[in-house]
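Module 6 notes. Inverse folding takes a fixed backbone as the condition and produces residue identities as the prediction. Think of it as a translation problem where the source language is geometry and the target language is the twenty amino acids. Below is one complete input and output pair. Work through it position by position during the lab.
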């Protein structure tokens, strides 16, 4: 079926949503669905408007200037939908482009679906704008009310959103490329570049260095824990507005900037433990990447960790928001971080079971069901999951 796929982030941008949307579009096309991708043109990109892709106008997102909002009028999108005649319009990210795309599709009687990928309402409190949180949540609810089905990554998030008044929710999950993220990619030369001796444990964090990611907690815990483990190294992969201040506060940590592809996989595999202190991620793809790389994971019991980690078996968990509990979980993870430990073997085994093809096949099936049931006028409040 003809699908319009709307997203405001896409490679060459580097983030979990961009990479997941690109993988999803590739899967749908490989499955035989013509996909018309609509996204904002990024800096330095050529204009494009053909059967496969339209790069619309855009503008920088406040606080995230490297990302862009998409800008298109509802009238322009209605004309485009009439020309393409899609069976379904799917929006992957919230924003002006998503609102216009869903409104245009509803006006044309086209089935719609949307992803809930980011807790933007929760971000407000990390930038001194906590009073905006209920307003942002209400805005997100209005956007998703225009969709015949909204996909969420976990059942826990579905329950939370349902309690807030969101309807027609389907749990889609996430996957991991366990062939790329593999302990076999461990690189002793890379470890030496980090200043780690053969027996020194290396703690890793991967992600955007921004207030809502809570990276400072991981670094504070590392500073305290290395007092008892002088050889404990800390490697931080990623970039963002907090990087300069974090580097000043933790000069002995190794900040390596953004890494992608095979290079990122080597960084995972060359570490021993992984700290994921975020409380705002709806999923956190890095959790599965760390498990697939066979690392001893410490995280709060939420998002991907709540789905894929059994405390003490394949990782170590702390109650959400319990900073002392997170440090204790990290200490337990480091105690089991030696190469070949049972916990690290189980981490790898649990991630291998989260296969991307199976996740994307389920997503594709629900998209087809939404288009079929909406077209037949049979879609009620329950999502076709």
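Target side of the pair, the amino acids:
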């Amino acid at each position: 079926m003809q699908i319009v796929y709307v997203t405001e982030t896409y490679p060459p941008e580097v983030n979990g949503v961009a990479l997941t949307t690109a993988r999803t579009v590739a899967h749908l096309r490989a499955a035989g669905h013509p996909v018309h991708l609509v996204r904002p043109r990024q800096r330095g990109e050529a204009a494009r408007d053909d059967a496969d892709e339209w790069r619309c106008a855009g503008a920088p997102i406040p606080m995230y200037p490297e990302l862009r909002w998409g800008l298109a009028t509802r009238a322009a999108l209605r004309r485009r939908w009439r020309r393409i005649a899609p069976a379904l319009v799917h929006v992957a990210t919230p924003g002006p482009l998503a609102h216009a795309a869903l409104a245009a599709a509803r006006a044309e009687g086209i089935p719609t679906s949307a992803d809930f990928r980011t807790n933007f309402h929760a971000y407000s409190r990390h930038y001194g704008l906590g009073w905006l949180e209920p307003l942002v949540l209400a805005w997100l609810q209005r956007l998703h009310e225009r969709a015949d089905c909204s996909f969420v990554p976990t059942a826990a998030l579905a329950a939370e959103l349902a309690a807030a008044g969101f309807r027609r929710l389907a749990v889609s999950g996430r996957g991991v490329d366990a062939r790329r993220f593999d302990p076999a990619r461990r690189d002793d030369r890379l470890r030496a570049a980090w200043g780690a001796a053969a027996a020194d444990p290396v703690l890793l964090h991967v992600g955007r260095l921004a207030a809502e990611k809570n990276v400072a907690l991981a670094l504070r815990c590392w500073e305290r824990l290395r007092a008892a483990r002088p050889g404990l190294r800390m490697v931080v992969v990623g970039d963002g507005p907090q990087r300069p201040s974090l580097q000043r506060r933790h000069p002995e940590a190794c900040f390596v900037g953004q890494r992608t592809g095979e290079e990122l996989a080597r960084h995972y595999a060359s570490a021993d433990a992984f700290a994921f202190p975020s409380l705002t991620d709806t999923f956190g793809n890095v959790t599965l990447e760390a498990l697939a790389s066979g690392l001893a994971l410490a995280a709060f019991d939420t998002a991907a960790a709540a789905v894929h980690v059994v405390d003490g078996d394949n990782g170590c968990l702390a109650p959400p928001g319990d900073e002392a509990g997170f440090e204790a979980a990290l200490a337990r993870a480091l105690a089991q971080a030696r190469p070949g430990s049972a916990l690290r073997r189980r981490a790898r085994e649990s991630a291998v079971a989260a296969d991307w093809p199976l996740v994307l096949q389920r997503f594709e099936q629900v998209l087809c069901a939404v288009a079929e049931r909406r077209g037949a006028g049979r879609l009620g409040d329950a999502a076709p999951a």
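Reference fact for the lab report: The domain at 183-352 is CATH 3.40.50.2000 (Rossmann fold).
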